[in-house]
Amino acid sequence: MIKWFRDKLHERNLQVLGLFTVIGAFIMTFCSYTSPAFYFDTSPDNNAFFTVGKAMMHGIVPYKDIFEQKGPYVYLLHGLAYLVSSRSFLLIFIVEIITLVAAMFLVYRLAGLLGTPALPALLTGILVPSLLLYHPYYDYGDTVEFFTLPLLISLVYFMVKLDRNQLNGSRGGYAAQGAIVGVVLLSKYTLLGAWIVFYLLLMGRLVVTKRWRELGKLVAWSAIGFLATTLPWLIYFLATGSLGAFINVYVLFNTHVYLTSSVAFFANLVQSTTLVSQFYLSNVIFFGLGIIGTLVVMFQPAIFHDPFMRGTYLLTNLGADLFALYGYQANAVYQYYQLIYFAFFILPFVYLCQWAFKRVPLPTGDAPFPILATLVFSLLLVLGVNNNVTNSKVFPNNSAITEAATTRPQQPAQVVFGHLMRTETPADTKLTMLNYGSIDMGFYTASGAVPNTYYFQNYNISQSAAPQILASQQAVIRDKDVEWVVLNTPVGKTVKQWPGVAGRISSGDLNPGTAKMSKMLLKRYRPVAQHSQIFEGVNETYWLFKRR
């Protein structure tokens, strides 16, 4: 056993993985808001996922008993995070490290598959975090897009292997991709574009060439992987009587309410193409890797030997890009949606590094100085493209924490209010609260409260599109169904003075307005605390109310 362990420690892949883990942990400590180096993860989406995951662990069924529109795998992951640490994102932070390390390792293996020597391949893997953590596409962290990146890179790797093996895939490779399709389908199905195109083209090619045995292997093993990751959820929804609610929310609500476009299929496709084009033209790096780099991949026979696989790569790239933004208008696209595009920057990036390292006199084996120099350069690049560290504990009392002019260490509103709610709620009483009018601001997380209302938050849609959400929240306040209510206004505006903007959530996750409901609120609840801080560039005040 000791000899086996010693031999394993000397395996190159394991050593590379260990180095990447150290690098990944260090980088994510200062880039992800889920890191303990940050005061609190203030991302609305992350906290919404955590709140629903926590509710799941208390027997509350998503879609049926609590409303949120992401896929069940997102909530399961955050439910497990709640079990690990009930008021922090510690497990998510670990998963983010694993995600980055997996992407680095896949890039390293992809470079080797393309004939890059061991040391340059290692250096390529060390450099790639500066691409994958590009702000604001990687913003707070903990997005489905970020977790999908290594899965999509694995598809690129699999396509290169298929090219090298004359379209003969392994059973394990097909099963893995099938399982990934199931996970992505039940996390955020708009990210499935690349796999849809890949499977359609590969199956079509196998049918045309009458390779029935390979087609059978592709379908059978992909189906096995797919069923392994989807069948348990079907059983769960049937057992809890929530299959209809799942379809109504995850499928119908997302496609008929949450998407912003109501035009025809072709018009939506043109609209999505326009958004993708604007993305590639917005930055010289994106243009270089996304347009020029893809053209190099298409016309460089050393990358894909088979013209069919070159075309497959191009079309899977386009499929991922177009499907990710299909149905969205320009003013409704959040930049983190486009992080998924970066997976198809990887192959041009690897080729560029291969070309560059050929022109640098590197040793034939591993050497400490090139590795250390590349590591330092990579860290500098990461800090150059991602400035999240300025909101961390490295910078005490930064504007994301407080607007108070003081040298005393401060905490964000979420932590301050959370402590107050836990302190003033008797130990034998269930803590109940409502996040009014905006996406989850983190007070459920900080207080430990489990939602007792279906609409525990609001969403990035107009009030007219789903009037039942705010109506339900106002009914909760009117009936005094919760002990605590939390909401926000711009700094300088009281609850009576904030009219809102256009009947929907505005910049800084500001709610659609409180002026009209303030009389009802103040009659039933009294203000007990307020705290001002900047969120996404908006100076706002958080208010905490307690039931009278």
UniProtKB/TrEMBL annotation:
| Bilayer-spanning residue ranges | 16-40, 89-111, 118-138, 144-162, 174-198, 218-239, 246-267, 279-299, 336-357, 369-389
Q: Which GO terms describe its molecular function?
A: transferase activity
Which keywords fit this entry according to its UniProt record? Answer: Membrane, Transferase, Transmembrane, Transmembrane helix
- Record's superkingdom? Bacteria
Give the residue range of the signal peptide: none
Q: What is this protein called?
A: Teichoic acid polysaccharide glycosyl transferase
Instruction: Give the species.
Output: Levilactobacillus paucivorans
